[in-house]
Design brief:
- The complex is a heterodimer of chains A (371) and B (457).
- Chain A has 371 residues and is mainly alpha-helical.
- Chain A has helices at 36-50, 65-73, 78-99, 102-106, 108-115, 130-145, 157-206, 210-289, 292-368; strands at 5-9, 14-18, 31-33.
- In chain A, helix 6 runs parallel beside helix 8 (210-289).
- Helix content of chain A is 76%, strand content 4%.
- In chain A, strand 1 and strand 2 form a beta hairpin.
- In chain A, 33% of the residues are buried.
- Chain B is 64% helix and 9% strand.
- Chain B contains 11 helices and 5 strands.
- Chain B has helices at 57-60, 65-71, 122-133, 153-165, 171-204, 213-220, 226-236, 239-254, 260-310, 315-385, 389-455; strands at 23-28, 42-47, 84-94, 97-106, 115-121.
- A 5-stranded antiparallel beta sheet of chain B has the order 1-2-3-4-5.
- In chain B, strand 4 (97-106) and strand 5 form a beta hairpin.
- In chain B, helix 4 (153-165) packs antiparallel against helix 5, helix 8 (239-254) crosses helix 10 and helix 9 runs antiparallel to helix 10.
- The longest helix of chain B is centred in the last third of the chain and has 71 residues, at 315-385.
- The chains are: A mainly alpha (371), B alpha+beta (457).
- At the A-B interface, helix 7, helix 8 and helix 9 of A face helix 9, helix 10 and helix 11 of B.
- Chain A: Belongs to the sorting nexin family.
- Chain A: It is a peripheral membrane protein.
- Chain A: Pfam families: PX (PF00787), Vps5 (PF09325).
- Chain A: One of its GO terms (molecular function) is phosphatidylinositol binding.
Chain lengths: 371, 457
């Protein structure tokens, strides 16, 4: 049992570690500075390497031209602040998922990312903008769809699971949009409450009955506090709930990607078999035509392709097994993740309601004092 | 008066439901409305529980306290004079036209029967209000503001949207949205019944206005009032009302005030009116946002249910519990919205209109003062010309008397208005705070329950 904790703090995207008891790391706790493009670079490296193996690689948060431009210009407005926090939290979750994956943790690129003082600048990360990432996934799917030989699954597990994943992703997208709407309505409520509080304060000033005037001013203060609560709730709706959904929409995309990897492995095996078949036919033709010099070459090629077919079949089986393992691991992690995030979300909501009670309980005697 | 209608569920209140509606019979209209693609039409028959302070003890015990509270929002100290008791025990809503049943119980001999009911439309209330406003004798009184026209625009728009979005929702989601919509129709409906009822009760509890002949006709006349309404329109032509609207600000602020009390009142009322109008609009926006959130919760809950249904992993029950929680939370959120509306928005709105009525009184007094000053000038002119002096003197005396009468009565009215306003605010602010606390405590229980369930799994 090991423990690797990563934290990403802003603004220079410092990556911190605590309590690592793994012998592979140089020291117990250390800090490195990383750029956003470094995170993308890591993902790219892992994708290329692991793609043949069937692992589910957690994707990093997408690039955002709008968000980053604002931040670069140095704007201090709430939406920029929100964007920076959103990215920081997403990068942290991304890293945590990477290090909690037993195979990925062993990967030298991951270790280099975590430990090395200075990383060479990552290039060619354009492919990994949000649109780029989707394109990659879709390209793989297209390749699969274009396959002329349809796979005959003896075990429907893969087909069924793939369908499940597609459905789930669709529903999550729907839910994500709904939660986004909720966040916006919550922010609207926030604004409306602030405006109402001011209006109530003005009314209180206008009121000629002293006790009522005081009570109205107190009401204005309570509504001000409510605005604060609504704002915090909106942040919670977004950062805990909505971002959880966004993460899993990306992760399910990655999972679909790894199913496609398995299909590609199968395809490669089938193509090798068909090439082998062609080689054998060619050999037969040569035997007939009685061309002994070319015959040896043909035999060599057959041997080569027989080896490939065997290799590719083994690869395909191995990828299949990895995918299965990965999916099960993923499902377990997802259930844990959802549970802990949901609890976090609900606990925040609970605290908010408890504070709300205190505010109104403090107001009640003021209202009763009106005479 | 506990009125049961059709096969509705009896029993007290909504037990924490959208309000204290005891029975609600919703029937599909005979003619499907073809307007704007809406595919159904509702006919509401609502049994509204009699609301007020003086219900006999046996009745009160069978009515949910909170539902009584909910409905009795702005009426304070009304309807407790047994000589004339008025209420609106039920109303019928058909295609946005509301028919109120006005029920009267009286010991006064001026009425033909001790107890009776008549059907009335909104326009009849307006007719009554306008005739009171235009009665010279009542110029020194604050005429209770006319109830606003029943406005079903908001739920109607929602119904339209719901019809359009039906295809994209699950059956469950659609049912819940329809429930919310029905609750909203109901809320608008209850509001309009209440506001019409309060208008009548303000009249019945006023020493002078309760004796008005037209008021009696309104309560008693068992035929259609539309003929009288038409005559009234012809007589006054709506001219006076328009005049009041445009002229009062200028006149009230322009006149040189002789009395400190009225000077202060004028300043206060003009300022307060603009502030309370603003607050009313802002409170309305706040309530709307709450309602939107409650609606979002419905959709979130439905989608979580879909996810959970198709989930074969350990996550299934997490999603299920969360879906269930959101469904419960949305009911609470809906109630927070409607309570805030009733206790806060409606309170502000009512007193905004009441203050307008008080301003109208100031206007009439200012006009009487202007008349008096003009009569003085006319008298001076007559004296100068030595012509028609007795008429001028008589006219001047007449104006002075009118002005003094208005001032005296006006002072009394405005003073009692102050007291009334303060009492109503106190009551409603207390109730609103108590309801906010109640709903938040409910939320806490629901949230804690769900958290515990999740942790224990």
């Amino acid at each position: 049992v090991f423990d690797v904790d990563v934290a990403v703090t802003n603004p220079e995207k410092v990556v911190q570690f605590k309590d690592t008891s793994l012998p592979m790391f140089r020291s117990k706790a250390f800090t490195v500075r990383r750029r956003y493009s470094d995170f993308l670079g890591l993902y790219e490296k892992l994708s290329v390497k692991q793609s043949l193996l069937g692992c589910i690689i957690p994707p990093p948060p997408e690039k955002s031209v709008v968000g980053m431009t604002k931040v670069k210009v140095g704007m201090d407005d709430p939406s920029s602040v929100e964007f920076v926090e959103r990215r920081r939290a997403a990068l942290e979750r991304y890293l945590q998922r990477v290090v909690s994956h037993p195979s990925l943790l062993q990967d030298p690129d991951v270790r280099e990312f975590l430990e090395r003082e200075e990383l060479p600048r990552a290039v060619s990360t354009q492919a990994l903008s949000g649109a780029g990432f989707l394109k990659m996934i879709n390209k793989a799917s297209d390749a699969v769809n274009k396959m002329t030989i349809k796979m005959n699954e003896s075990d429907t597990w893969f087909e069924d699971k793939f369908q499940e994943v597609e459905n789930e992703e669709q529903q999550l997208r729907k839910l994500h949009a709904l939660v986004d709407s909720l966040v916006n309505h919550r922010k609207e409520l926030c604004g409306n409450t602030a405006v109402f509080a001011k209006s109530m304060a003005m009314l209180g000033n206008s009121e000629d009955n002293t006790a009522l005037s005081r009570a109205l001013s107190q009401l204005a203060e309570v509504e001000d506090k409510m605005e604060q609560l609504h704002q915090e709730q909106a942040a919670s709706d977004f950062f805990i709930f909505e971002e959880l959904l966004a993460d899993y929409i990306r992760l399910l995309g990655a999972m679909r990607g790894c199913f496609d990897q398995r299909m590609r492995a199968w395809q490669r095996w089938q193509e090798a078999q068909s090439t082998l078949q062609k080689k054998r036919e060619a050999e037969a033709k040569l035997l007939w035509a009685n061309k002994p010099d070319k015959l040896q070459q043909a035999k060599d090629e057959i041997t080569e392709w027989e080896a490939r077919v065997t290799q590719y079949e083994r690869d395909f089986d191995r990828v299949g097994m990895t995918v299965r393992k990965e999916v099960l691991r993923f499902e377990k992690e997802k259930a844990k993740d959802f549970k802990s995030q949901i609890i976090k979300y609900l606990e925040a909501m609970l605290q908010s309601q408890q504070r709300l009670i205190k505010f109104w309980e403090a107001f009640l005697p003021e209202a009763k004092a009106i005479a | 008066m506990f009125h049961e209608v059709g096969g509705g569920g009896g029993g007290g209140g909504g037990g924490g439901g959208g309000g204290g509606v005891t029975d609600l019979t919703v029937r599909q209209g005979a003619n499907q409305s073809a307007e704007e693609g809406a595919s159904w039409l509702y006919t509401f028959i609502i049994g509204v529980v009699g609301l007020f302070v003086d219900l006999p003890p046996t009745m009160t015990s069978s009515i949910d306290e909170s539902s009584k509270e909910k409905m009795r929002s702005v009426s304070v100290d009304l309807n407790h004079d047994a000589s004339l008791l008025i209420d609106i025990p039920d109303a019928l809503c058909e295609r946005d036209k509301v028919k109120f049943t006005v029920h009267t119980k009286t010991t006064l001999s001026s009425f033909q029967k001790p107890e009776f009911s008549v059907p009335r439309q909104h326009e009849d209330f307006i007719w009554l209000h306008d005739t009171l406003v235009e009665t010279e004798d009542y110029a020194g009184l604050i005429i209770p503001p006319a109830p606003p026209k029943p406005d079903f625009e908001s739920p109607r728009e929602k119904m339209h949207k719901l019809g359009e979005g039906e295809a994209t929702m699950t059956k469950d989601e659609y049912t819940k949205m329809k429930q919310e919509l029905e609750a909203e129709y109901l809320a608008v409906f209850k509001k309009t019944v209440q506001v019409h009822e309060v208008f009548l009760q303000r009249l019945s509890s006023h020493p002078t206005l309760s004796k008005d002949r037209n008021f009696q006709i309104f309560l008693e006349y068992d035929q259609d009032l539309s003929v009288r309404r038409k005559n009234a329109k012809e007589m006054f032509g709506g001219f006076f009302k328009n005049m009041v609207k445009s002229a009062d600000e200028v006149l009230i602020s322009g006149i040189k005030e002789v009395d400190d009390f009225f000077e202060q009142e004028k300043t206060f009322l003009l300022d307060y009116y603009s502030k309370i109008k603003d607050s009313t609009a802002k409170a309305e926006k706040m309530t709307r946002a709450h309602k939107n959130i409650a609606d979002d919760y419905i959709h979130v809950s439905a989608t979580l249910n879909s996810l959970s249904a198709d989930d074969s992993t350990a996550n299934k029950k997490h999603l299920e519990k969360l879906a269930d929680l959101f469904e419960k939370l949305r009911k609470v959120e809906g109630r927070v919205a409607s309570d805030q509306e009733l206790k806060l928005t409606e309170l502000l709105r009512y007193y905004m209109r009441d203050i307008q009525a008080a301003k109208d009184l100031l206007y009439r007094r200012a006009r009487a003062l202007a008349d008096y000053e003009n009569s003085n000038k006319a008298l001076d002119k007559a004296r100068l010309k030595s012509k028609d002096i007795p008429q001028a003197e008589e006219h001047q005396q007449h104006c002075l008397q009118k002005f003094d009468k208005l001032s005296e009565s006006g002072k009394k009215e405005l003073t009692s208005f102050k007291g009334r306003r303060v009492v109503a605010f106190r009551k409603n602010l207390i109730e609103m705070a108590e309801l906010e606390i109640k709903h938040a405590k409910n939320n806490v229980t629901l949230l804690q329950g769900c958290i515990d369930q999740l942790k224990n799994n």
